[in-house]
Amino acid sequence: MSAHSGSGPRRRQTDADFVLDTRSLGRAPGSMRQVHRVVTAPEKIGLDLIAIPAGAEIDLDLTLQAVSEGVLVTGAVSAPIEGECSRCLEPFTDRLDMSITELFAYPDSATEQTTEEDEIHRLVDDMIDIEPVVVDAAGLELPLQPLCEPDCAGLCSECGVRMAIAGPDHTHEILDPRWAGLANFASETAGTGVSDARSDVDRSSLADRNGSAGSKTEEK
Description:
The chain is 26% helix and 29% strand. By secondary structure, it is an alpha+beta fold. The protein has a domain at 19-141. The strands form two sheets. Strands 2, 3, 4, 5, 6, 7 and 8 form a seven-stranded mixed sheet that branches. This is DUF177 domain-containing protein. InterPro entries: YceD. Residues 190-220 are annotated as: Disordered. Pfam families: YceD.
């Protein structure tokens, strides 16, 4: 992302928020200036599942150094982040700490003349806008599949409950589908007593038949 783009009229930038004035730095190679500033994120910065939320305070602790081709910006950026765990889908918060290193080329410098507009950032009226640098750095630093905890166990594949609250004893009996019908039948008959009653009737009938058969034998 370039520091500026488009062919329309350009509004003059001022030293505020992400924009830094370099005039007090001068252009003598080696001159340095420290900048500490807290800015507000104008919009969500990051990825779909995890990002610096709009309105969050971003802490900038930077060093501006004049070099032969431009101004080198180095330092640390810190901000709160909000995300959704890619395993258990629960929201969580954390903090993002990252380092940035970016060269802003002087107008008409060799670097400016030999690079495409989107290849390197440039000074505009002695101002540098580091918002695109922070946006790009956050996109690279944040994980594509964020986790609420490094060892998040995710969701139960059978019932969808979070394993973090289900406990280590949470299990499901996996039954071979070939025996599922028989298991259901056994459960239903056990609950109604049908099997026991039927067995008693069968035993009584068998006894009667045996008794009748014995009587006929004696008569002969």
